[in-house]
User: What shape does this take?
Amino acid sequence: MNMNIDHYRKSPNFSYSSLSALSISPSLYLNRKEDVISDAFRLGSALDCLLTENDKFDENYIIYSDKLPSGQMETYINNMLHFNKKGYKDIDHIHKEAFKKLKKSNPKLRTSDEKFKELFKEFEDYYDINKSNKIILSTAEYKQVLSTKLSIKSNDYTNIYFPSTPDDSVTIYYQYPHFFENYGYNYKVLYDIVYINHKEKTIKALDLKSTSKSILEFPKSFFMYKYYLQQSLYQDGLEVLKFNLGLKDYKIMNFSFIIADLNNYSSPIIYNMSDFTNFGRNGGYYKEEYHKGYLELSKELEYHIKHDVWEFPVEIYKNGEIKIIYEQFSKE
Assistant: This one.
């Protein structure tokens, strides 16, 4: 693994993902590392790797042609992996704890622990691969991701960001980690793409996102998944990065999202974001709902860390109540 990426992941600096989790609930922020990797994340990260770090694909992914676990068996094996990562060595002990955790989440479970141990034998290879921290893709998923990669590299609008031959007038950085201080807080961002055009003296950041939904639904996802926080934080980081790269006279272009269809029904689309940087930084109203910016969330996260309180939002600890403002319902 790239040591810079490894350092990025271990850094305590505030990030889009941490602030986004905090905006939902402090407890989600605190426990976000325990989340099981979703199918969407697996496929999306595999696409990112194939496009931007193809030489590291075999290091981080494995194509698994056998049967994949599903349902309760998948949960049971994920529980086993959880206890394996916690340092449990004895396999019988791991089985016992995995079943207890499964039973706790599903009290009406009728299948016995011995039955799960028996069924597990079919998935021992799957379990061993997961212990290696490689991400598993089925053969069908791998073909799906390869097709999506091809659609991006063959599209007239997106292929310039993934050129087959080098161009001396352009510098492209992929999976570029950047640490910076802004408004008194330390942040970290991981750019999928930083595109520098030396002829035009411009610098642009882009983020690659994949979806199994219609790519035309991205404007809804932009607010649902709080991508405005990412867009703003990444764009502000670019103001610092251009000086670090010695490009202080270069113009920063609008941040863009490349949205790819994992079902390969549609060609990829580029969404060019124009006026959301201030919104994502300082917050504001959208469709009668107030959205916190990354600065307000940074202040709240600083409070949670300082006082080590994570059950409720900051306002509860400070005021004993949460105010519901009329404008949140009435502002047009």
Q: What stands out?
A: DSSP finds 16 helices and ten strands in the chain. Residues 66 and 125 are 9 Å apart (CA to CA).
